[in-house]
Every structure is written in structure tokens, then in C-alpha cells.
């Protein structure tokens, strides 16, 4: 069986406390998951069993090798307003948002978990095509 690489971008919101469940499901279904949290997600991941998934934090240093193989798929869950807008605008200010921006050529999934109170605000992207970088 071929192992596929899944980048799991995790934002700082309550659902991040279940990242281990997603990692376990990915492994069960033949994926090699890499957890790529935003800074705000780190407290939600503290103490979780991530089933030996690699966690990639911060930006890489000049001359440092890439820390993940090319992704076969990318998921961002949970999605926060800040990350969604940075992604939509191509503002790759952090490694997790950079992963999203360069993932334009691989299947990705933005789980529809943005707080309902944020939908409809002028700064909220209108749909998946507006999120492509």
C-alpha cells in the first residue's frame, strides 16, 4: 500500500482539542499525517496523543531542508477567521498559512467550521475559489 502525505493545518479553536482523533483516522486510512499548528493552536494540542505524527512548528531557517514531503492532500481544521482571511489574501505570514497557499495544486479541504457569527462579514471570503492562493 502506498502511503500518502496529509498535512493537517490546525488553528486555535476548541475543535483543535480533537486533533489526535483526526491523526488516528488518517493513519487508519493509509495517510502519513503531519500536524502543522498555528501558534494559537499550540495550547489546544498540549498533552494530546498525536500517535507519533510529526508536528511542524515555526518557519524553517535559511538553508534548512524542507520539513515535510510534498503533500498529497491538505486539511485545515478547525478554521479560524484570521487564518481563513490570511489564506484568501495569500498572506503567508506563518508556516501553516504558507502550507495552505502552496497547496493550490493538491486536494484540500477547509472544513466548514468557521463560527456562524463570522459568516457574512465583509472580510469573510465568499467561497472556496476565493480562498485559492
Strand order of the largest sheet: 3-2-1-4-5
Molecular shape:
globular
What is the CA-atom radius of gyration, in angstroms? Answer: 14 Å
Residues in β-strands, percent: 15-25%
CATH class: Alpha Beta
Write the layout of secondary structure elements.
Layout: E1 4-10, H1 19-28, E2 31-37, H2 42-45, E3 54-55, E4 73-76, H3 81-88, H4 95-102, E5 108-110, H5 128-131
Parallel strand pairs: 1-2, 1-4, 2-3, 4-5
Mind explaining what this structure looks like?
This protein is of the alpha/beta class and 133 residues long. The chain has a single domain, classed as Flavin prenyltransferase-like (Rossmann fold, 3-Layer(aba) Sandwich). The chain contains 5 helices and 5 strands. It has helices spanning 19-28, 42-45, 81-88, 95-102, 128-131, and strands at 4-10, 31-37, 54-55, 73-76, 108-110. The chain has a 5-stranded parallel beta sheet, sandwiched between helices. It is globular, with a radius of gyration of 14 Å. The model is unreliable at 126-133 (pLDDT under 50).
What would you say about this model in short?
It is globular and about 35 Å long. It has five helices and five strands, in the order E-H-E-H-E-E-H-H-E-H. It is α/β, with parallel strands linked by helices.
List keywords for this structure.
Rossmann fold; disordered C terminus; alpha/beta; single chain
